[in-house]
Write a structure and sequence with these properties.
The protein is an alpha+beta fold and 276 residues long. Helices cover 27% and strands 26% of the residues.
Length: 276
């Protein structure tokens, strides 16, 4: 199975972002990709006011409708990175990843669980002020493969990835806008660790470059195999990468080094809750 990751420098211009993304998705499809993964907030990477103005319910989202059309027209599955979603009855937005089947129908919807409330690189990030965390872990079948869905900061929470693997995920998607400050030291290490721990393929599609009001994204989108081998990595700048996934090799890894099968859930005890 061939998969692709699209790397974008999205900004507060949805028309421009959709045009660039559509062109790169088409290139990936022509290259034989059965699944194409877009980055976090691929249609609109901007400050809270612009995100709020551009947000919509999924059934009224220009970006999701465009991605559904690309999937139908090309006969490919599309992971529509994440978009800012208005959820009825919810005051704050959701950062929502949408998995689309080859017929344009939605195969899975995941709302980012972990909010990026950190101080890093001289910038104060407080996603929870404008976004509402999700509470559902999602594994969805697409193109004959069970896909676990995550978004960016989720990468730092290994328990989420273990649950995805235990629930049958063979591939995990990580649409991201990873910061330049953290990406240089942590991006590759975390992606390869999550792949090795859970013996899954990881497709991480990132934003790259500058965007208002303070985004400086690392890029270096990656596709990693269950042994932690780097199959493809994007250079700096917009573009795409692709790789062929050897599912038979994944089966061999899980059989010869059966760390998932050797788990002992009955021996695991969560510690008492400790305040941060």
């Amino acid at each position: 199975m061939r998969v692709a990751a699209v790397q974008l420098n999205s900004r507060a211009d949805e028309d421009h972002n959709l045009e660039v993304a559509g062109r790169l998705v088409a290139e990936a499809a022509e290259d034989g990709a059965a699944l194409v993964v877009l980055p976090e907030k691929w249609n609109l990477l901007a400050g809270p006011a612009d995100l709020l103005a551009g947000a919509a319910p999924l059934d009224a989202s220009r970006a999701i409708e465009a991605a559904r059309g690309w999937a139908r027209d090309r006969g490919i599955a599309v992971l529509a990175g994440s978009v800012a979603e208005r959820v009825p009855g919810q005051q704050r937005l959701s950062n929502t990843s949408v998995l689309i089947e080859t017929d344009g129908e939605l195969a899975g919807v995941y709302r980012k669980i972990h909010m990026f409330d950190v101080d890093v690189g001289g910038v104060r990030y407080r996603e929870s002020e404008h976004e509402c965390p999700g509470d559902e872990i999602v594994v969805a079948p697409v193109a004959g493969l069970e896909v676990g869905m995550t978004v960016c900061y989720d990468l730092r929470f290994p328990e989420l990835y273990r649950i995805l693997a235990v629930r049958g995920a063979r591939l995990v998607t990580v649409p991201s806008a990873f910061t330049l400050a953290t990406g240089r030291d942590h991006w590759e290490v975390l992606i390869r660790a999550r792949a090795i721990e859970n013996q899954v393929f990881v497709v991480a599609a990132g934003q790259v470059g500058e965007a208002p009001p303070h985004y400086s994204s690392y890029g270096r989108s990656m596709i990693v195999d269950p042994w932690g081998v780097l199959l493809a990595q994007a250079p700096d700048g917009e573009g795409l990468i692709a790789a062929d996934l050897d599912l038979g090799r994944q089966d061999e890894i899980r059989a010869s080094l059966p760390s998932l099968a050797n788990r002992r859930p009955g021996a695991y005890r969560w510690p008492e809750e400790v305040p941060a």
